[in-house]
Amino acid sequence: MKNDPKKPIYNVVYIFIGLFALAMGYFAYFIVFRSNDIINSTYNKRQYVLAERVIRGEIRSADGETLAKTMVEEDGSEIREYPYGDLFAHVVGRSTMGRSGLEESENIRLLTSNINPIEQMYYDLTGVKSPGDHIITTLNTQLQQTAYEALGNYRGAVVVMEPSTGKILAMVSKPSYDPNTIDEDWEKLVEDEEEESPLLNRAAQGLYPPGSTFKILTALAYMRQNPSYESYEYDCDGSIEENGMVIHDYSRKGHGKIDLQLSLAKSCNTSFASIGRSLDLDQFHALTEDFLFNKYLPVTMASGKSSFPLQKANSSKKEAMQTAIGQGRTLITPLHNAMLVSTIANGGAMMRPYVVDRVENEDGGKVKTFTPQLYSKPMTAMEADYIAEMMRKVVTDGSATKLKDMEVEVAGKTGSAEHGKEKAHSWFIGYAPFDNPEIAVSIVVESVGTGSEYAVPIARKIFDAYFN
Ligand SMILES: [Zn+2]
Predict the structure, then answer these.
(1) Are 97 and 208 contained in the same domain?
(2) What is the spatial distance between Cα 236 and Cα 216, in angstroms, rounded to a whole number?
């Protein structure tokens, strides 16, 4: 018997028409039933509706490691697992006990499924939950691990950023907590909150006096207000007095005759206090606001607002001198300081920091990709280059010579921020390679002592891990 040659084609057509009808039916169903309760819901109602239909997606590192995933038990109950324990606790966050980190900011994306419509149809018709989309971050597991271990048992924070894009490669806050056991540990964690604040993401929310890292902006203010800044000269004898207040250098011998670049390299307090006394404070104030002081940072994560209250109308000469060396009432977050140093490394262009690189569906298909975004240009390329040179001298001739013998050329600025009776907070902000910056770091170690002694060695370990 001879087959009708047209028959297989008809079969294909019938299957096609069948699928098409099913799909149309599904879309009608979706529009009538599904979309209404999803699209027209409040945020809270929407996430519950989604959670009933979707298994929360994974959060992954840039190098493909799983940072958070949902395991489904036989009885259908779901457990959120964090394979790296407390290593990524603050940046990845937690999904229970007050959602935080990416678990909070990406909540709806993790509970949205963008698998293909045919598969979606299967899940909807069988009543099985569909797999949520995955968040692929910019975080680098090795750098995160290195920063975490380098901070040791100290309290503090580390941010590692790519200056040319604003990608956050690592974000550590200590002390940390294990999000796997957050429910059973909750009472203890809340108890510790007053003393140690383990739940606080210090990297994005911790507000610290910037100490001498702030001299970078004081130097820029001086450059703007004094076109002849290259001939600046100060004769330092180790201290400076104003109306009964004395500001000392860390080393009380004095630095002798120094120019602006050496003032920064040696972190000379008296030279910068003298500069602070001479500045137009309203212009200084405006400059710091261009660098996002007194403003919220352009980020999706919960972050603190750095403050610079100094103004002509409300401040004395004494306070201007304190402020110029990073003391006074100025406060900054480690993330903000990472943005400042990245702006210098990036030739004066400030990039918007980000942690989510892309969203993928269960099959690895791209749902959304995030690209680097220029936020603003608060300084010229010439200003950035001049300050970069000064920061290179900090490493070759100044307070960060512990980085001088490294194969990669580092530029940076140390800080020892005093705060009451305790030891100073130890700061370092910097980047490498000097000629073609690839990564920038912002490090603060709480209440330990000088920047050169505590924060600089941590920077060294991070640069080592990245470049070797
Ligand atoms: Zn000095």
Answers:
(1) no
(2) 19
- 307 Cα to the center of ligand 1, angstroms: 27
**CA 181, 183, 185, 191 torsion-angle sign:** positive
Contact 431, 159 (CB under 8 A): no
Q: Are residues 337 and 290 in the same domain?
A: yes
Centroid of ligand 1 to alpha carbon of 270 (angstroms): 5
- Last residue of one domain, picked from the residues 60, 94, 125: 125
Q: Residue 427 belongs to what H/E stretch?
A: strand 425-432
The domain in which residue 379 lies consists of: 142-467
CA of 156 to the centre of ligand 1 (A): 28
Scan for tokens 């945020």, then name that residue: 43
| Number of separate domains in the chain | 2
pLDDT tens, position by position, 354-408: 999 999 999 999 999 999 999 999 999 999 999 999 999 999 999 999 999 999 9
Query: Same domain, yes or no, for 50 and 189?
Result: no
Task: Kindly report the backbone phi and psi dihedral angles of residue 164, in degrees, each rounded to the nearest multiple of 5, phi listed first.
Answer: -75, -20
* Peptide bond preceding 175 in cis form (omega within 30 of 0): yes
In a domain, 131, yes or no: no
Which long-range contacts does 81-89 make (Cβ < 8 Å, 24+ apart)? 81/180, 82/178, 82/179, 82/180, 84/141, 85/178, 85/179, 85/180, 86/176, 86/177, 86/178, 86/179, 87/144, 87/145, 87/148, 87/176, 88/139, 88/144, 89/173, 89/176, 89/177, 89/178, 89/179
Give tens-digit pLDDT for 7-66.
566 666 666 666 666 666 666 666 556 665 665 567 777 888 888 899 999 999 999 999
Neighbours of ion ligand 1 (CB under 5 A): 236, 249, 255, 268, 270
Residues 188, 330 within the same domain: yes
